[in-house]
Amino acid sequence: MNNEVLSKYEELYHSKPTYYAYSPGRVDLMGSHTDYNHGYVVTMPVNLVIDCAFSANDTDIIEIYSCNLKNKTKINTKTGDIIEGGNWAKYMSAVVKVLLDEDYELKAFSASFCSTIPIGSGLSSSAALEAIAMAMLAQTSGFKIDKKNMALLSQRAENVYVGVNCGILDQYSVIFGERHKVIKLDCRELTHKQVSWPEEIMVAICNTNKPRELHGSEYDDRRAQCEEAVTEFAKIDSNIKALRDVSIDFFHQHKNKLTTGAAKRAEFIIEENNRTHELEEALTKGEVEKLKDIFKRSFNGAKDLFEISNDAMENMYKAMSSATGVVASRQAGAGFGGCMVSLVYKDKLEEFKKDVFDTYKKLTGIECDIYGVKTALGTHVETIKSTNSKQVIKHTESE
What we know:
25% strand; Ribosomal Protein S5, domain 2; transferase; 9-stranded mixed β-sheet; ATP binding; galactose metabolism; Mevalonate/galactokinase; 4-stranded antiparallel β-sheet; alpha+beta
């Protein structure tokens, strides 16, 4: 439990919290933009997290204090309206509204939270916030919701009330995490496999410190081009419902039916989807030597075909790929800045971090942030037990 969260709760509300909630960030290891194409993604919930202390209150108003931003938001549980709050309040409000749409009776809570997930970096801080809000409301309101429905409703909240046309990946990932595993998610069937992670390798998340923004046209344009490709291919084969259904041979045979932009986007998605299967097989068989090539092809495709790279990402890729201890490197999240990801031998992590920091600063003049992360449990709530005035909760981060 984050001590700042606990002390701030007691300072603000003059009592001890009843519950502790936790929600991780996540990074995709393979499968950029495959989620809304009904494909596969290999994703890793990570121990950069939102920690929250909270208790039910006797009003209709949710009160939440952010230790990071030093401000409070208030949301009406009868309407979902934001009474006061910063930009992050819209995610909490969206969750309230989508639960009201489903006729849940909601009971408010008072809370403090602290996040170690970098905002705007592609590590799903918004999904973590949506998931934790839903889990907290379920706890205080006394209803049960299974993990899959939690993910679907969190996604709907972001689609309908935040206005981001995201797929299911982020929400599913932060909810279904397990220790020492990564998730291979089937985005059509909403099923997944837990794939064992090699003990000798850590994930290094390298933040370019160039924030990304999904409200611009770039994300929506690429999604529309993928849908354009599906529409054209479905005229040839009615069984094609998404790019997941298109083989690379079929693509090359019929790509002349597509605009240049749609053809490039489709080629990347089809190949990227295949790479998720390659990565699962390599991890399952312990074939670490194959990871570099799989990751390299993903980054090159993201840069040349899906065109979601920028100068900061390309300079970070150069820095990561040449650093001590690196196994493989690629983009993370939706691209357009934010974070990159490397697989690194555990015993070389500090050398890797120094090399990347120095090289990236030399190339860009920007000081990057680098996080060595582990696998993490998914979103959950626990009751805080008091023993002789001391509060005790079960350890929840990845070991």
